[in-house]
Every structure is written in structure tokens, then in C-alpha cells.
């Protein structure tokens, strides 16, 4: 099935929107302030929803990714959060470079240009890098004297493939998608189709992360309260209090 995509205002995708926010606020793309960027990113998403615009799932997935990075920073150790932020910075730098190259190519192309099939080139397999004789000899000894272990049996992988692992980030996306249409839903409705224990636990943790990140709130004192999606303005009020 062909994948449907949408444009959010003038942004081609979530990376385009993030790059716009970083340039607008004159931020360091290698040291992104996640909290500030997340707040403005969600304001753009909420503004699109108020105008009855369809929001691509890619934008929602990036929102969940930013929320997860923000929540990881609340932990005592920030190694995972720093790695996730560095990965996002690398993607933004690569996307920015692709846009720059695409712009240069677009300036060069015209209706008068001529393209032809690439000419056949005979590959040259000659090794031209400098060789260190001692290192080459040591590599030979290592290869010749290395013990070849037998291939692993199927039983050695049974414990890994039989246990299904469900990530909290994937369930954050699931909860946000459920709330995006109706804004609120009963707490039990989030677990109706959850049969696997790992999936149930991951969904429960996802709700906690979203509450901690001030993305949703839970209303009601019964055993089946209501989970409600917070708007950008409500999140700012909760942060001030």
C-alpha cells in the first residue's frame, strides 16, 4: 500500500520543522535544548490541529521521540539522553547538508540539460595503501592460529526470540495517536487489545512518562479514570504552578 504523506504548513517533515525552530531561535544544532525545542514543536503541531490540518504520523513519532529524550534527562544519569540527543543532532546536520546540495543541484538543472547513461568503467582492484610488514605478518599469525568456533545452535537463540520486547517509546506513540483524535479516552481503553505482559507494562510506563512530561493528565477517582491530552497552553500553566 502506498504511504500517504502530508505537509505541515511549509515543512516537508519533522526534521524540516526542527531545523526551522533551531535556526529561528539561533540554537546550537550540536547542543539542542530539548525542553525549549519540544515546547515550540508541539505548539506548531497544536496550531495545525486547530486549523483542522491532517498531521503525518512522522510528526507524531518525532514528538514522542522528543518527549522520551526529555524524560530520560530526568534520570540521575544522562548518558542515554546525551546519546539520543547526539543522534538527533547528527540526523539534523545530515538533513541540512542534503537540503544544501539539493538546492545547488536545483540551480544547475534546466530544460536545456542533457543526460546520458553512465559509461562502463573497468574496476581497479589494485591495493595502493601503504603496508606495514610487521602488522601484515602479525595479521597472518592471528588468522592462521585463530580457533574456529562451531556455529551457534538454534537452542542458544530460543531465549531471545521467544521473548517479545516492547519499548516504552513505541507505546508513547500509541497513546498519543489514540488521544490525538478524541483528546480524551478512558484509562482501560488503552489496554483493551494488550494481551502480552511486556506490552501492558510498556503502555503503563508510557502513560507515566507522558504524565511526567506534562503531555497528558488523568482525571477521576474511580478505577477507570479519563486520560486527557493537554494542549500547549495548559502545559505552560501546569509548568508555572
TrEMBL record:
UniProt keywords (A-Z) are: Chromosome partition
Q: What is the residue range of the signal peptide feature?
A: none
| Residue runs in coiled coils | none
Short name of one Pfam family: SMC_ScpA
Tell me the Gene Ontology biological-process terms attached to this UniProt entry: chromosome segregation
**InterPro entries, per this entry?**
ScpA
Kindly provide the name given to this protein in its UniProt entry: Segregation and condensation protein A
Amino acid at each position: 500500500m502506498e504511504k500517504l504523506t502530508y505537509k505541515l504548513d511549509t515543512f516537508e517533515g519533522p526534521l524540516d520543522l526542527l531545523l526551522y525552530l533551531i535556526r529561528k531561535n539561533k540554537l546550537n544544532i550540536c547542543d539542542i535544548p530539548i525542553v525549549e525545542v519540544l515546547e515550540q514543536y508541539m505548539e506548531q503541531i497544536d496550531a495545525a490541529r486547530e486549523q483542522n490540518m491532517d498531521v503525518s504520523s512522522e510528526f507524531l513519532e518525532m514528538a514522542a521521540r522528543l518527549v522520551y529524550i526529555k524524560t530520560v534527562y530526568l534520570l540521575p544519569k544522562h548518558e542515554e539522553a546525551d546519546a539520543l540527543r547526539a543522534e538527533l543532532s547528527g540526523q539534523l546536520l545530515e538533513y541540512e547538508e542534503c537540503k544544501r546540495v539539493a538546492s545547488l543541484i536545483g540551480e544547475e538543472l534546466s530544460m536545456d540539460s542533457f543526460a546520458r547513461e553512465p559509461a562502463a568503467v573497468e574496476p581497479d582492484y589494485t591495493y595502493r595503501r601503504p603496508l606495514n610488514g610487521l602488522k601484515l605478518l602479525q595479521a597472518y599469525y592471528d588468522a592462521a592460529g585463530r580457533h574456529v568456533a562451531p556455529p551457534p545452535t538454534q537452542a542458544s537463540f530460543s531465549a531471545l526470540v521467544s521473548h517479545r520486547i516492547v519499548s516504552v517509546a513505541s507505546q508513547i506513540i500509541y497513546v498519543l495517536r489514540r488521544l490525538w483524535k478524541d483528546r480524551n479516552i478512558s484509562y482501560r481503553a488503552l489496554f483493551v487489545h494488550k494481551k502480552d505482559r511486556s506490552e501492558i507494562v510498556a503502555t503503563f510506563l508510557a502513560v507515566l512518562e507522558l504524565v511526567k512530561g506534562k503531555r497528558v493528565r488523568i482525571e477521576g477517582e474511580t478505577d477507570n479514570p479519563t486520560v486527557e491530552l493537554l494542549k500547549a497552553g495548559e502545559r505552560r500553566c501546569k509548568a508555572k504552578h
